[in-house]
Write a structure and sequence with these properties.
Blueprint (H helix, E strand, L loop, with lengths): L21 E7 L6 H5 L8 E6 L6 H8 L5 E5 L5 H15 L4 E4 L11 H9 L5 E5 L12 H18 L12 E4 H6 L11 H11 L4 E5 L13 H26 L4 H30 L5 H27 L11
Parallel strand pairs: 1-2, 1-4, 2-3, 5-7
Antiparallel strand pairs: 4-6, 5-6
């Protein structure tokens, strides 16, 4: 059993993977056909493998118990389906109990290669990040096998996640191949994180409001005969609403409660002026169209100027928000 040790003692260029306890969480739902192949690919850098059977109709958990002899594997079984987020959070809790330093999460459908875990956790081991996630879009040739509908959906969801989470420089937010340092996981309100397919996007929101550093790691996705449980057409509207809620909460927490700066003034004044210009201009435009009387020049100028000045202030705030990503990892100081 490797000894628990902080990542700050590791070489920047050659991190010692055996100096930290790495636990892998594998949430499963109808993954019986692929799970044994996935478990067979875990390397020696992983100390614990937590398979979470999320009330699988095909008995994935029992299949692993009976067919997998790897002593690192622990199987948890949910009596009722909780969603991929709920299964992952159960795995997080077990990993904390097992004394993990870093928790990796990957799906059991075979699309994520466990052999890439050493690459995924490297930014954390080197002290450059608190949370690392896979990015399937870094190498364009690597997405040639991705279904076109899923590709378009991921682009849309990635932009929405940038806006709501504040991590403007990352991509592929729904990627489920992630790693987190245990000290950061312990300060997150795990009971408040979304348990559905929105889990990864909601994690990014909670990481941002806690000022955690997130790293994108290039990975290759494997697309075979597996069926994705994530239907883009069904989750776009629910995801959009959740992104809007997270955006509002993030702006309030980061720019009103935690800090109040010139960017906060830009945001507030810009919103007021833009709203006033839009509403005032819209009312007078409607009155002009209804009565046939052309609005006076002063009314037009007032609406245009307030809207334009408000938009300029909001663009200034947007530029500040894009640059305001967390820079210093949290976990060395926790």
């Amino acid at each position: 059993q490797p000894k628990r040790n902080g990542a700050t003692n590791m070489s920047e260029h050659q991190p010692d993977y055996q100096a930290s306890v790495i636990a892998a969480v594998v949430p499963c739902y109808r993954e019986r056909a692929s799970i044994l192949d996935v478990l067979g690919k875990f390397g020696p850098e992983v100390s614990h493998i937590v398979v979470v059977d999320d009330a699988c109709p095909d008995g994935t958990g029992e299949w692993v118990r009976s067919e997998c002899a790897d002593p690192r594997v622990t199987v948890l079984t949910h009596e009722a389906n909780q969603g991929v987020g709920g299964a992952t959070l159960s795995g997080y809790a077990k990993s904390i109990e097992l004394g993990a330093d870093i928790i990796v999460k990957l799906d059991g459908d075979g699309q994520m290669n466990p052999e890439m875990i050493s690459r995924l956790v490297r930014p954390i081991l080197e002290g450059r990040a608190d949370y690392a996630k896979g990015n399937r879009f870094f190498r364009l040739q690597g997405i040639s096998g991705m279904p076109k509908m899923r590709l378009v959906g991921n682009v849309i969801l990635s932009f929405a996640s940038k806006v709501s989470s504040g991590y403007w420089k990352i991509f592929d937010p729904t990627n489920g191949f992630t790693a987190i340092h245990i000290k950061v996981a312990e300060i997150l309100p795990l009971d408040q994180i979304d348990k559905s397919f929105f889990f990864e996007s909601d994690m990014l929101y909670h990481l941002n409001v806690n000022r955690a550093v997130v790293a994108d790691v290039p990975i290759d996705a494997i697309y075979g005969s597996e069926t994705s449980h994530l239907k883009i057409s069904r989750i776009l509207l629910p995801f959009a609403w959740k992104h809007v809620k997270n955006l509002v909460k993030r702006l309030i927490i980061n720019y009103l409660f935690r800090d109040f700066s010139f960017a906060s003034v830009q945001l507030l004044v810009g919103m007021v002026l833009t709203a006033f210009g839009t509403i005032f201009g819209g009312i007078n435009w409607y009155a002009s169209v209804s009565t046939g009387i052309v609005a006076v020049t002063g009314v037009i100028v007032l609406a245009a100027m307030t809207f334009s000045f408000g938009a300029i202030l909001l663009l200034g705030f947007l530029n500040y928000d894009i640059q305001n990503q967390p820079q210093s990892p949290l976990y060395p100081d926790l």
